[in-house]
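User: Here's a structure from my thesis project, written as structure tokens. My advisor, Dr. K., wants to see whether a designed sequence matches the one we expressed. Can you design one independently, without my sequence as a hint?
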């Protein structure tokens, strides 16, 4: 075998066909292809002869090798090296080194961590150890035979309290007696011999008949009226009260308006103002109205035979008066 080149890393001689340096394991570059150029210089190195144990010789005169190893170059000292072991450098030393560094860092953090971190971690471990180990367990019931723990109550020393200042009792305030609201006193009925009760009572009855005419439309059925009253009612029926239904609630006489005079035939003529409170409905849609008209009345009354006649009627628009002056003579 001839030494054709040397390892570029360690300088060890390389034999023909070697792919890795037998000394440092570095890969060997491929040999240059011989061309037509200048002849390559061949260096011959004398390899020292090694003594090997004598191999037993068979009957044919040839010897049989007791130990052969693939990849061993004849004539080169064998020290257990196999060429294929140098195909790729081992990475385990680097892995072990990285793991050792990581372990060192963790050990340093554990042994040299700050006191606050140690206290916090220890507290968490204590809580976890105390609380989590009892999950799912029932609360132990107290034993009836065990005596309760004695609790010594510490009574604080009370501070001296100032004597309370007596509060004077206020004198009771007399409760005022409620004064009743004044009751309206109706105007007394005139006491002169003018027959107030008889005349106003007759007119109150007449007024209900007066409303019935507007309800039925039969004006001819109404009696004891003059021609002027007939014309008045006919006009009201045609223009104002037609299509309405009335019902009387109250007839009142304005006391200060009541005036009378005696006639030559013994009859009495009375003039007064009357106030009415009526219920009213419009027949087309049954709409309700609170009807409260006022009317001036002239009436003749003969006390001897109780005959009477309504001489004149007229509506009072926007009548104004004191309600205490109203004398109720009839309520339906």
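Assistant: Designed independently from the structure alone:
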């Amino acid at each position: 075998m001839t030494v054709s080149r040397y390892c570029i890393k360690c300088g060890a001689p390389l034999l023909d066909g070697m792919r890795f340096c037998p000394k440092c394991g570095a890969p060997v570059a491929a040999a240059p292809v011989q061309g037509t150029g200048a002849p390559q210089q061949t260096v011959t190195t004398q390899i020292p002869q090694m003594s090997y144990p004598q191999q037993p010789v068979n009957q044919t005169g040839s010897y049989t090798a007791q130990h052969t190893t693939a990849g061993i170059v004849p004539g080169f000292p064998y020290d257990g090296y196999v060429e294929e072991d140098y195909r790729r450098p081992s990475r385990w030393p680097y892995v072990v080194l990285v793991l050792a560094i990581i372990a060192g860092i963790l050990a340093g953090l554990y042994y040299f961590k700050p006191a606050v971190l140690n206290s916090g971690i220890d507290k968490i471990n204590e809580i976890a150890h105390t609380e989590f180990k009892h999950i799912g367990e029932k609360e132990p019931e107290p034993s009836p035979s065990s005596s309760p723990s004695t609790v010594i109550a510490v009574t604080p020393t009370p501070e001296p309290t100032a004597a309370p200042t007596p509060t004077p009792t206020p004198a009771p305030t007399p409760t005022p007696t409620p004064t009743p609201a004044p009751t309206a006193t109706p105007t007394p009925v005139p006491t002169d011999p003018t027959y107030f009760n008889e005349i106003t009572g007759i007119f109150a009855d007449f007024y209900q008949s007066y409303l019935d005419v507007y309800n039925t439309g039969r004006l001819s059925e109404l009696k004891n009226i003059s021609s002027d009253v007939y014309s008045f009612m006919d006009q009201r029926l045609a223009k104002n009260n037609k299509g309405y239904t009335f019902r009387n609630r109250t007839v009142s006489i304005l006391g200060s308006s009541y005036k009378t005079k005696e006639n030559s035939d013994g009859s009495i003529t009375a003039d007064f103002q009357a106030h009415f409170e009526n219920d009213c409905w419009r027949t087309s849609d049954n709409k309700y109205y609170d009807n409260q008209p006022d009317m001036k009345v002239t009436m003749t009354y003969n006390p001897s035979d109780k005959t009477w006649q309504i001489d004149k009627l007229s509506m009072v628009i926007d009548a104004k008066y004191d309600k205490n002056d109203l004398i109720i003579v009839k309520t339906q």
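When you compare it with your expressed construct, this may help: Helices lie at 92-112, 115-131, 196-216, 227-239.
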